[in-house]
Amino acid sequence: MSQSTRRGFLSLGVASGALLGALRPSSLLAQAQTVARALGRGVSAYGERSRFETTTRLLRDSRHPEASSSRTPLQDLQGTLTPSPLHFERHHAGIPDIDPSSHRLLIHGLVDRPLELSLAELRRLPAESRIHFLECSGNSGALWREASVAAAHTTRGTAQSTHGLTSSGEWEGVPLSVLLNEAGVRPEGTWLVAEGADASRMTRSVPLTKALDDTFVAYGQNGEALRPAQGYPLRLFVPGWEGNISIKWLRRIEVVDRPYMTREETSKYTDLLPDGRARRFTFVMEAKSVITHPSGGQRLTNPGYHQLRGIAWSGRGRVQRVEISTDGGRSWEVAELQGPVLPRAHTRFRLDWTWDGSEVVVQSRCIDETGYTQPTREELIAARGLRSGYHNNAIQSWKVSPDGTVENIYV
């Protein structure tokens, strides 16, 4: 805690004393004695959270839940790792029920030695465990809309509803380079086509350069096997790139000499520009951040000390700096980053703040290690227009009203 923060707490004076005085030691002692006399619940085969913790994912209102999504409650999370049950979901044809003993990964195409590998065989190979974020390219997509249209969807939205299609976890698996080297990629092989085992046969093209860099085939998530919703028993994981390319329920990788222009990289997951042209293969998820406290749907109970908190991330690498504004972007102050700051991973930031009770607009912007700076919504629209539904990494603005309520606004 900084010296200025200590002085800030001490300056609370009477308010702090009143709060402490409201706590009755005698009643707390009686409560402790009562609890101590009652036997607690015994051990279990698989742990559960407290019945008092009710944070859940936000489900997209859809008539077809097999082709829908759920969103991570960013405003309620602590630390940088997303618990597996709260990791966002996005499916196109539901979650297949796959027996890992019969599942196989085929690597073929422009290779010298085609491979067919079981999960057991993959687990014998050199493994790596890495912490990375995953983000759907449609995250914050509603914020592309005109303010008048978006108001009904996002004005009182939460960080979960506006930014909840991103999560972070510790993933374990085999570097794809190990598998490709074993298969022997031929000189003319410059791309891969990865295919999932779900009913939609989700398919994406991946440049060989990225495949050999940091892409891996994952079978572990946060210390245990992948959850079915995250691709059990195998998924491709392409760090820093749009989530759709990290194919779940991975069953096949074909080495080819060009991108295959699949449905998911032509009619979908492209960014339509104002002149009708489309940006294709917009793989990288650019630098982005969001303040999670205070954020939409929350309420500050009183003026005084508050800590501004949030997360930042970049598909280009590490977060270099996060700046916070409490005056709608007129001035900025550097926030504190919580280490370790890892490449292509969620990073926590914090800034001590004293709210005077007036209306304010709080914002954050991320600058990554390449020097890229998160743009304003106005800058992003000037470059891309309003016809896209993907890759919205604009600065998020939360308005704090004098009564302490917090809501999304455009500035």
Write the layout of secondary structure elements.
Elements: H1 3-10, H2 14-21, H3 25-37, E1 58-59, E2 69-71, E3 89-90, E4 104-109, E5 115-118, H4 119-123, E6 128-135, H5 147-154, H6 159-163, E7 166-175, H7 176-183, E8 191-196, E9 203-207, H8 208-213, E10 216-221, E11 224-225, E12 235-237, E13 250-256, E14 271-272, E15 278-279, E16 288-293, E17 304-313, E18 319-325, E19 333-334, E20 336-337, E21 347-355, E22 360-368, H9 377-384, E23 397-400, E24 406-409
Parallel strand pairs: 4-13
Antiparallel strand pairs: 1-2, 2-3, 4-5, 6-7, 7-10, 8-9, 8-13, 10-11, 10-12, 14-15, 16-17, 17-21, 18-19, 18-22, 20-21, 22-23, 23-24
How would you concisely characterize the structure shown here?
The chain is an alpha+beta fold and 411 residues long. 17% of the residues lie in helices and 29% in strands.
